[in-house]
Structures are given as C-alpha cells and as structure tokens.
Specification:
alpha+beta, 7-stranded antiparallel sheet, 11 strands, 34% helix, globular
Length: 298
C-alpha cells in the first residue's frame, strides 16, 4: 500500500472514531436530558378546577383542557425549561393540557397581581391607541439604549399584534404587542390580560411566539374567563371612602405605566421561551410514554 493511501485510510479511521465519539456524547446528553425532563414532569403538581390563588383575593376556574401550576412549579418551567432568569414572582401558570412545556410550540400564561389601588376606567373609551403606540415605541427605544449599555439585547416594539380592547361589563382588558429582541428573526408575542379589582389588578401574560398569534387570539376569551376576583374584592366592591385609587388609568396599564416614573426597565421585562437551551430531540415522540399523568381536580 503506498503512503498516500495509508494516510488517507488513517484520516478516515480518525474521522470515523471522532464521529462515533461525538455521536455517543450526543446520545449521552440526550439521555441525561430525557431523564431530567421526565423527573421534572413527574414532580409537577398539575391541577384543574377551582384554584384559590395565594394572594387570597382571586380564584381561577381551570377547565380540563388546561392545567394550573403553583408558583414553585411555574418557576421550574420558566427558569429551568424555558431559560428565563430565576426568581420570577408569579401566582402560578396556566398551560394547555394537549401539550407539554417541553414541546417546541409550547405556550403558557403567567398569573401575577399588582396591588396599587383601584384603577379607574373612565378613560377607556377616549384613548387613541395609535398615538399611544407611538409614545410606547419611543419609550421602548430609549429603554433599549439603556439595555444595550448594560450588555443586554436591544428591544424594539414593532407594533400592535392585537389592539387593546376593554370590556366594561367584566372589567377585563386585553391587548398584544409584537416585539423583536436583538436581531432575532423570530419575533416575540406579548399578549396581555388585565382583570381589574377593588384594590389592584390581576396580570395574565401569554408566553408564545409571534407565529402562534392567531391560535392565542382564539384562546384569550377562555383564559380570561378563568380569572375572577372573590366577593368583596371585585371591581364593583370599591369603596371610595376606604380604598386607595391607583395613580394611573387604563391607558397607563397598556403602556406599562410610565418608565420614567419608576426609573426601571420592569415594564419591558417579558418572559420568553429560549428553546436554544433545549437539546434538539424529538421530544413529543420520546416523551409520549410518560406524559400520561392526569391533572388533579380540586
């Protein structure tokens, strides 16, 4: 055998050995991920039915095609599975029961509560939302420059994914923003629900991709219907002689209050699904065998 053929054969052997090692390593990583994911899934306390939120002022009625996770389990999904910073403050999450948090197209709704007083809805029918959008885009650009200096991705408010709508009968408000982080080709859908109460507001936020916009639009009414304040804490229970009135109205709720007022970027904090941290495996097929435990019914 001449030297050139010998060298070629050796290179081929080294390449095959390297490929085999890389394949074995990838399989090992997948196995580790699968074991971790299975353990996490089994640990989740999924519930349906009547859920009394920890704040003691509101209740969720979760139908069987959804399930509720308590704040501790919600933190597992937000931080460990979807790659958000740890330490999120929620009252839990609502997720669809026909998928798992590990699916590529998974989505969910965080539930939070802001007790800053009774939000008057007197301005609801007089707001120019196109003008408000321009102001929000300017504020977002200003805040984005600050984010850039701090080493974070820039953020751009592209526009309304769904214009704000306020239902005066139920005192529920919803709207959606299309947002771009950095130079990401896939935009983020920031779909919001606000339920007005006597002393504050329930904040419900969808976590999904912009490609899921139409599907999420079809889910808004069913999700919004789940959340209601308890008797004594409802919007109509407001007592002007006893209760605090918030320093803002409907327009400021949509705008994220006033960034300049707080000096923080909190109004631009959005939960994301960073699936880049998830190993690319056929999750739906592999997980099908153990994603069978049904949610608890309260």
């Amino acid at each position: 055998m001449n030297r050139s053929l010998t060298a070629f054969a050796l290179c081929a052997l080294f390449s095959l050995a390297s490929y085999a090692t890389e394949t074995q390593h990838a399989q090992t990583e997948q196995e580790k991920y699968m074991a971790w994911a299975k353990s996490l899934w089994i640990s989740l306390d999924r519930k349906t039915g009547e859920i009394k939120l920890d704040n003691g002022v509101a209740t969720l009625n979760v139908p069987k095609d959804y399930y509720y996770l308590n704040p501790q389990d919600a933190e597992k999904i937000l931080a460990q599975v979807w790659g958000n910073p740890p330490g999120s403050k929620t009252l839990g999450m609502i997720l669809p029961s026909d998928s798992t948090p590990f699916d590529q197209h998974a989505w969910g709704v965080t539930v939070q509560y802001e007790e800053e007083g009774y939000v008057t809805d007197k301005d609801a029918n007089t707001i120019d939302y196109d003008d408000l959008l321009k102001k929000m885009q300017a504020e977002t650009h200003e805040a984005s420059e600050a984010r850039k200096k701090q080493g974070y991705d820039t953020i751009e408010l592209v526009g309304w994914a769904s214009k704000p709508y306020y239902d005066q009968a139920t005192h529920k408000l919803h709207w959606a923003k299309e947002i771009q982080f950095g130079h990401s080709a896939e935009h983020t859908l920031n779909y919001n629900i606000r339920v007005l109460g006597r002393k504050g507001v329930l904040v419900m936020t969808f976590i999904a991709g912009i490609a899921q916009k139409e599907m999420i639009k079809n889910k808004v009414d069913s999700v919004m219907a789940m959340a209601n304040f308890d008797t004594g804490q409802r919007y109509e229970d407001f007592n002007p002689s006893l209760d605090k009135v918030a320093a803002y109205g409907i327009g400021a709720l949509v705008a994220g209050k006033v960034i300049a007022k707080t000096g923080l970027l909190a109004a631009l904090f959005i939960f994301l699904k960073k699936f880049g941290i998830v190993i690319a495996v056929a999750i739906a097929g592999l997980f099908g065998k153990f994603f069978k435990r049904k949610p608890k019914i309260e």
